[in-house]
């Protein structure tokens, strides 16, 4: 009887031990599944984020490498006007090499030139003036070949026109040049009817990258 009881107890102990091992094995399997699922999730998330940054970097690079293109208006009121597209708009320090003279767009200084009907008698820093164009200003530039009468007439127009400015600029082909963001028109005389038309079309016109931005509280000299 004692022997039989010992055998029964031994069998029960073995079953208990086996059951314990099975529970431990199942627990290990559950942990393994959790670890596997977590690892896969992290890897997929990492690939997704990495893919995003790769695409985002590619988009930024493509935008950065967009080539500046130019064309000439061949018909209509502004025949002969030069236009440019894909102009940079990054705020930078120091000088910028522009694709045209005077510049009508591109990277520029973070401080704009005051353009609330401001008439300057000395040349301006180009990088500040370009920022004014970004705000929708028309910039009138002239050389020493422009007559005193024309300079006076243009000054009077600018002074009564918010979002405009005027300054001497010698490095240009025409005595008078009208400049707006991405657009440039040469004129010989202030009496040219295209002057009034240019102001009407381009002062805060559709070409403006930042309509309504300030033309005051910037650089004043």
In which order are the strands of the major sheet placed?
Answer: 1-2-7-6-4-5-3
Strand content: 5-15%
Q: Note the total helix count.
A: 4
Biggest sheet descriptor: 7 strands, mixed
The CATH topology of the largest domain is given as Glutaredoxin
Mean pLDDT: 85
What percentage of residues falls in helices of 4 or more residues?
40-55%
Low-confidence stretches: none
* N→C terminal distance: 116 Å
Element-level helix/strand string: HEEEHEHEEEH
What is the CATH top level name of the largest domain? Alpha Beta
InterPro entries: DUF3105 (IPR021454)
Organism: Streptomyces antioxidans
Keywords: Membrane, Transmembrane, Transmembrane helix
Protein name: DUF3105 domain-containing protein
Q: How are the secondary structure elements laid out?
A:
Blueprint: H1 2-64, E1 69-72, E2 82-85, E3 116-119, H2 126-134, E4 138-142, H3 148-159, E5 164-168, E6 176-180, E7 183-187, H4 193-202
Parallel strand pairs: 3-5, 4-5
Antiparallel strand pairs: 1-2, 2-7, 4-6, 6-7
Protein described:
The chain crosses the membrane at residues 32-55. This protein has 221 residues and is α/β, with parallel strands linked by helices. The chain has 2 domains: 1-65; 69-202, Glutaredoxin (3-Layer(aba) Sandwich), CATH 3.40.30. It is 43% helix and 14% strand. The chain has 4 helices and 7 strands. The chain has helices spanning 2-64, 126-134, 148-159, 193-202, and strands at 69-72, 82-85, 116-119, 138-142, 164-168, 176-180, 183-187. Strands 1-2-7-6-4-5-3 form a 7-stranded mixed sheet. A hairpin with a 2-residue loop joins β6 and β7 (183-187).
């Amino acid at each position: 009887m004692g022997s039989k009881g010992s055998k029964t107890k031994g069998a029960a102990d073995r079953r208990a031990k086996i059951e314990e091992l099975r529970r431990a094995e199942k627990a290990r399997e559950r942990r393994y599944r959790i670890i596997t699922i977590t690892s896969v999730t992290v890897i997929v998330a990492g690939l997704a984020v990495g893919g995003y940054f790769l695409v985002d970097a590619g988009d930024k690079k493509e935008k950065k490498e967009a080539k500046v293109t130019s064309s000439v208006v061949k018909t209509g009121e502004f025949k002969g006007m030069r236009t440019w597209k894909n102009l940079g708009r990054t705020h930078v320090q120091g000088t910028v090499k522009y694709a045209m003279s005077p510049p009508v767009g591109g990277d520029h200084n973070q401080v704009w030139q005051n353009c609330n009907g401001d008439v300057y008698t000395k040349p301006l820093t180009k990088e500040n003036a370009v920022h004014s164009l970004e705000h929708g200003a028309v910039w009138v530039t002239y050389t020493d070949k422009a007559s005193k009468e024309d300079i006076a007439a243009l000054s009077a127009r600018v002074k009564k026109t918010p979002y405009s400015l005027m300054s001497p600029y010698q490095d240009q082909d025409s005595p008078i040049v009208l400049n707006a963001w991405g657009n440039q028109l040469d004129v010989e005389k202030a009496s040219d009817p295209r002057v009034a038309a240019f102001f009407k079309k381009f002062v805060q016109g559709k070409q403006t990258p930042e309509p309504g931005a300030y033309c005051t509280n910037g650089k004043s000299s």
